[in-house]
């Protein structure tokens, strides 16, 4: 498989009968008649009672000697202005861009699966703002959400991804790890290295909207593929519903176990429904390649190891991802991807590469230097505490990773981290020797 | 999904077996009743407003069981839910409400004159008395399913109706999103303020969406009559006061409710009600009267008696801690209230509380005096 995507020939190659069936099913819903489109719009629910679509209990309706007659409006329909959320106390990307006009334009639309604008923005309505970071405030329920609600997603994406415009920019995908220069850090400073991303299975709804059967299908497709990994990638799957006490304890000790989300940002989006059904953790025997299934995304893929060999971590990352992709394609599946948004994930903040490559690095002197934030900024890096997002640094150890996700390729972003961490270590060494450090020139964002 | 219909379209691409929830570790009324066959029969149905079976059961799927009590595990999204999904909800109701059958009729009696006594519960023991219920406005979806527009509509109608109350019922509305710091503090001090639900039982059903939009608290100037708007139900109506005069509390309760109902009718609205289920509320456990009448009462001796549980059972009462459902009693003070909601009228239920609490206080006095309570043991009501 080549590392660049997007050619039609590549796609046709994989249109096996199996995927044809999937596509037809998909298009049957997507290109349904206008009649069915009416059925799928929440605004026109009233008409359902008139046409007596088989799935509705119209019979009961006509028999009731009560207030509602067949043919009457069965759902109170309010104008968009009465439905528009109160966002006056809100501070998230969705609230910044959801004007009454945009709401009015989009509130009657649905994706072919029936996902609505109100569902997409619910998490942002329910969670006005985060003290540390400006949250996104909306999610996608399926791949088509990004298209159907583009009038809102595009400005949100642009704000979140520092000016990337999905309308006229293309996102490069590059998982050729041989292009990486350097990437072996001094273990004296770098305690561990890690690269993570996510992948979604095309044709199945995303965690906010998926049905139980769809979620189980994601699990099956991914677990089947992972079972085909060999060599240093061979591993085992632990389903959350079936793991033993010992397995659970081992996963906790390894810091692999994820638990039901408690963050209201996630629960308000509906991602925790039916927990722990069809959720699980897969990892290779060496514990350096880990896949989470049906947590925040269909899959989260993590490559990591102790020490500073980011190069090897990224090599394993690319190899593992490409292998998994090949294995699912054998069965007629593929990842959600397009040339403007790259890999499609639930949260717009993870579009593009969905990649966060980072290290835990000890910088006792640089960490206290007042120029540290500016240096990071210019290197297009961010710092977090070693507990992950929203934690503070403990002692002198920082989690340093790439700021960007969309608009640059995986190779470019990992190279940025490598070059940047090298610079930080150089600064630390200079400060050790009593020398002065310089703030580097800002590197350009979109290459 | 609330206010979206993703599931009903998508899930029909899969078999019922593929969609059926894993209820193997569950212990709630829904899980006891929902067989794979029932799921298959009901899953393609929806109410006229688009509420589906999966919407009904989501909270029960997400919350396998509660350590103290057997939860219901399903909710209604609108009035028609109870009809469209009767195959599921009738057995749940029967199980929850002591054998209430699909053909049974429920009587409503809000005439406070029919209550005997109740004005003389000993205030040395009975610290406070309270009666609460809920009401839903016909034609609107219930909290798990309503849109923002509907919820605001409910708030508007309720505030209008409550604004027309006068006499000792005259009061004021405090919208959650507009209240000042001082108002908020006062409501907290009065123990009136309700906050965004944190119980996963409620959150999983979608009732907390858009908080605090269109939520608020209304209370009369005397602080004895309180209405919550758009919390767990469209309206929760509470009458209360310190001391043991349950009759007065119930009087005010009935008068207030009747008046509010009249005011709604004047504007062309009515409460959800039918002769089988009584007043229709979001949770099946609150059908019928939706009434919980109770007292905070000091029973340090009786509560330690080995037959305390049995006594309560025979009196058709239940105990809770003074923090409400799911709390433990503090300092020998218990919240004692009626266990039933459906199949008995409001008057009958409050009568049971009045008679039962009177007996419990008598028993407490006996035990204090070192006497046995064996000949005070009640019959099963």
From TrEMBL, chain A:
ATP binds at residues 192-196, 255, 300, 356-360, 384-389. InterPro entries: ATP-guanido_PTrfase, ATP-guanido_PTrfase_AS, ATP-guanido_PTrfase_cat, ATP-guanido_PTrfase_N, ATP-guanido_PTrfase_N_sf, Gln_synth/guanido_kin_cat_dom. Residues 189-431 form the Phosphagen kinase C-terminal domain. Its EC number is 2.7.3.2. Residues 75-162 form the Phosphagen kinase N-terminal domain. It is an enzyme of class 2 (transferase). Belongs to the ATP:guanido phosphotransferase family. This is Creatine kinase U-type, mitochondrial. It comes from Cirrhinus molitorella (mud carp).
TrEMBL record, chain B:
CDD domains: creatine_kinase_like. Its EC number is 2.7.3.2. Keywords: ATP-binding, Kinase, Nucleotide-binding, Transferase. Residues 96-110 have a biased composition (Basic and acidic residues). One of its GO terms (biological process) is phosphocreatine biosynthetic process. Residues 11-98 form the Phosphagen kinase N-terminal domain. InterPro entries: ATP-guanido_PTrfase (IPR000749), ATP-guanido_PTrfase_AS (IPR022415), ATP-guanido_PTrfase_cat (IPR022414), ATP-guanido_PTrfase_N (IPR022413), ATP-guanido_PTrfase_N_sf (IPR036802), Gln_synth/guanido_kin_cat_dom (IPR014746). ATP binds at residues 128-132, 191, 236, 292-296, 320-325. Pfam families: ATP-gua_Ptrans (PF00217), ATP-gua_PtransN (PF02807). Coiled coil: none annotated. Residues 125-367 form the Phosphagen kinase C-terminal domain. GO terms for cellular component: extracellular space. It comes from the Eukaryota. Residues 96-122 are annotated as: Disordered. GO terms for molecular function: ATP binding; creatine kinase activity. It catalyses: creatine + ATP = N-phosphocreatine + ADP + H(+). Belongs to the ATP:guanido phosphotransferase family. This is creatine kinase.
